[in-house]
Amino acid sequence: MTPLPPIRIAPSLLSVDFSRMAEGLALVERGGADLHHVDVMDGHFVPNLSIGPPVVKCVAKSAKIPLDCHLMVTDPVTYGERFAALRGNLDMGVTFHVEVVQDVAAAAAALRKAGVRPGIAINPPTPVEMLEPALEHVEMVLVMSVHPGFGGQKFIADVLGKVEALRGRYGWTKDIEMDGGIDRRTIASCVAAGANVLVAGTAIYGAADPAAEVGELRRLAEAARR
Ligand code: DX5
Ligand code: ZN
Q1: Could you tell me the distance, in angstroms and rounded to a whole number, from the CA of residue 70 to the centre of ligand 2?
Q2: Atom number, ligand 1, closest to the C-alpha of residue 146
Q3: Residues 6+ apart with CB under 8 A from 189
Q4: Most buried in the list 120, 147, 184, 225, measured by CB within 10 Å?
């Protein structure tokens, strides 16, 4: 059996204190964060606005670890290409939603051409079967464990079945990311189901010691590895 990819902890920038962003990025990097999760919202696909190109440019300048861009927008290729152009020497993944992209093959190919790794995200109400035709085109699946749009929501445990189906029925051995409501109490269930990339916003940036919290979440995730 192919071993699953390593556990990776991805602090979500959405919960950083934006008046001290570079400090926040450096702090979680010191704690051993693997990726910065960058939540991009367009006020259309989700009822909120967040980060756009000027901020991504600043993040790319400060960051020492890869960027994991999560595009909650209706036009992910246009913005994915723009972000790709801002990444400098950093590695970047760009994840778009299965709910908005008709031609996943074309979207993924355009992103690869721009130099970033394509991923596909799925919202809680969307059935896992929707992903089937997309899997051959992407490097990662992001299983949302909240309805996208806001940090600090409650983890939806029902979505764990999708992670199990991807690892079991679909034989998916690449990255599975989970995003939303992940903290010390919920992280083990994500890993036990088969997820390996764990996003946490509130749990990390809201902690008294964000660097230590990255380590604590990693410890709990490694312990839950099956
Ligand atoms: C939700 C975003 C998440 C969010 C997670 O729309 O995709 O990445 O920042 O925040 P927490 O960890 O606070 O649930
Ligand atoms: Zn996200």
Answers
A1: 5
A2: 1
A3: 157, 160, 224
A4: 120
